[in-house]
Design goal:
alpha/beta; eight-stranded mixed beta sheet; 19 helices; about 45% helix; elongated; binds uridine-5'-diphosphate-glucuronic acid
Amino acid sequence: MRATVIGLGYVGLVTAACLAEWGHDVIGVDGDEHRLDELEAGRMPIHEPGLEDLVSAGVSAGRLRFSAPAAQAVAAAQVVFVAVGTHDGNGGWQTATIRSALSAIVPEMADDSTLVVRSTLPPDFIRQLPWLVSAMRQEAGRRPIPVMTNPEFTREGSAVHDFLQPDRVVIGVGEDPHGRGASMLRKIYRRTNVPVLVMGATDAALTKLGANLFLATKISFANELAQLCDAYGADITHVVAGMSHDTRIGGGFLRPGIGFGGSCLPHQVTMTIRESAALGLTTPLFEAVETINHRQREVFVDRLTIAAGGLEGARIALLGLTFKPDTDDLREAPALDIARTLIDRGATVVAYDPMPAARTKAAAEVPGLIVVDRAMKALVGADAIGLVTEWPEFARLPWAAVAKAVRRPAIVDGRNALQPAMLVAAGFTYVGFGRDGRAAVAEPGAVPTTTPAQPDAAGSPVPTRSRRRTSIEAALSAHGIDRPLTPIGVETNVSGA
Ligand code: UGA
């Protein structure tokens, strides 16, 4: 099939490369000449595992080409995917880019071709899309074409995998009187062998939105539950494992920590709240999801404050900057907010991320932030370490050596990505989210609770108790509930249930 993809960002470039991988003849179009030059030279504008290999395979097989003028690139296409940006840079939507892309391509598209919008857009815009396209065709004296949507469910960091092996494919029908658009999309996705759901375009837009809102809700739920685990001295890892074997619940997106970032989840939660208000609707659930998400960053900073013994004059090492591993994307990355707050409160913040592009961008975006090109450089002399992004290399750091290189061996694990037992054995005080009772203890500004754990009679490290912790226990006892402290550093095998 001859396919053209308009917009070569995170969504469009992956779409173009994967369609070429499936044997289609693809032209990728972007208005950014520099981006096109980079792609021609085999350099990827974004870090996405597997993408470079697919692009270079597609280019050398002659199935993937890049071009700037959209009008020419769509004239011979049987299907045109539109994947242009829709964010206004201020947390809102903008439709100017897609409107201008459509006005350039719609009049030029062949009469037997199909338009497929893959960008994420407000449902209201999607509702109007068929009329907009039909008016453009009429004005150009061209016959109507099918107007379809095909929302993407790909995650950054595993977008190639998610495209080639999706859980499902959703096809939205804007205008498709003879079913030509739906049958073309079915043909394209046939090889995925997964359910293909054909529905109205507005239903498809709400499906996309609903999926992201639900994922965001799960994360905020996990963060709320982690708070309870901290208060009661339970381990969220075990709790989630126990819950997830219930097929009604599932185990995904229940990792607590500093909360969700990226260009999708935060934006879509905020926009849903705003747009619902404009429609006269109230959205207390989504508002709570957002509030909890922002609170997590504060909680992380509070825990770092306690771990460092106060922020004024302290040196804080941040491990990771990107909003998740395996991407160089810093959009809505919690790290940026966290670094700003720490610096505002008097700390020297030294950050390391494996992605050079993310380091450069973060240094430009956060005044006063020091970025270094090796983790160890950030860690030397630190009063507290904050793990922000769970890059696998952080789990492999020589933690015993790190404990000697820092000023205070205290680590706040914002992603529950490290092994508490190993860190405690290396001499660290470890604080995660919902993983050990001490995290919830001291209120911000209280006396630090970072005394290294002492081994008990059996040689297992046990946590140091603290004021709030004790009061929680007292409250529980008053209700006739008596629970032993969950020792940190003792891992229970929860697999194989
Ligand atoms: C998200 C959705 O997962 C995709 O299905 C969707 O296609 C995409 O948005 C989009 O709308 O384009 P993405 O933003 O790339 O994908 O990344 P996620 O894997 O969803 O992670 C989002 C954030 O949630 C990250 O900051 C991550 O660290 C955080 N997260 C994720 C948690 O805090 N806890 C979890 O359990 C899972």
